[in-house]
Amino acid sequence: MVSLPRANHFCLMGTDVKLLCAPDDKARREIANQANVVDFLAEFARSGRTRIGESVVSEIHRLTTEGIYPCAGDYRDARTRVTITGTTHRPSHSSQVRSDVQDMLDWLYGEGRQQSPLRRAAFLLWKTNAIHPFNGGNDRVARALAYLVVLLEVAPVFAGESLPTKLKKRKSEYLDALQAADNGDLAPLETLVLACFQGQITELMVGPAGTAPTASAT
Fold first, then answer.
1. Distance (Å, rounded) from C-alpha 182 to C-alpha 175?
2. CA-CA distance, 134 to 10, in Å (whole number)?
3. pLDDT tens per residue across span 197-217
4. What is the mean pLDDT of the chain?
5. E strand or H helix at 92, and its extent?
């Protein structure tokens, strides 16, 4: 069994961390991969597609961990048992991962249709972390899925510091909100998603740290 702190997950086979890149190259690859994920989300939104399916979840994970871990795009399986420290929540058993992901997506386009886009985004953000479907990169996939819901159902805003990056920067609030969601209260996470997306929009209008953008700004 492998115990991992929440929001600090690694792609594991058994008990060995397997990197496809040099350790000192990991951060650079993560940044490059994140850019590829944002490009994928933008293309998805601009193509007119509206439904997030399992293949989309897997592709986001593949892009997120490509060149870093060997599990890119693959659900975790019985070779790895995972616990997450810092919470009483237990992730899905490996045998239930695929069905739990499908149930999450079924909720999004079924019962969840009655909820606001921000609540739907917050639900995917929490539930992906709760299921922990992959051996690594789960939180980055969760933040990307939440961002995709906002892009599709609120506003297609791709410029500026993105929602996933802003959530990561507000780590303490984010982890507290995930803990609240584990205990049945999704409101703090929904509020945080709204605040981060509003921050992204505000920066497009006034520039970072309240500075007005120049004519050459992109």
1. 10
2. 9
3. 999 999 888 765 555 444 333
4. 86
5. none
Apex CA 82: angle with CA 76 and CA 84, to 5°? 125
In this structure, the number of other CB atoms found within 10 A of the CB of residue 30 comes to 17
Distance CA(177)–CA(171), nearest Å, equals 10
Q: Kindly report, residue by residue over 158-193, the tens digit of the pLDDT.
A: 888 999 999 999 999 999 999 999 999 999 999 999
Distance CA 70, CA 20 (A): 7
Q: Which residues contact 192 (CB under 8 A, 6 or more apart)?
A: 122, 167, 170, 173, 174, 177
Q: Does domain 2-210 have CATH number 3.40.50.300?
A: no
Which class for 157: exposed (0-12), middle (13-18), buried (19 or more C-beta within 10 A)?
A: middle
**195 vs 101: CA distance, rounded Å:** 27
Domain ranges for the chain: 2-210
Token couple for 75:
């659900």
Burial degree of 184 (CB within 10 A; 0-12, 13-18, 19+)? exposed
N- to C-terminal Cα separation, the chain: 47
Instruction: Note the pLDDT tens digit of each residue in 109-128.
Output: 999 999 999 999 999 999 99
CB 13 within 8 A of CB 70: yes
For the record, the structure tokens of 5 come out as: 């702190």
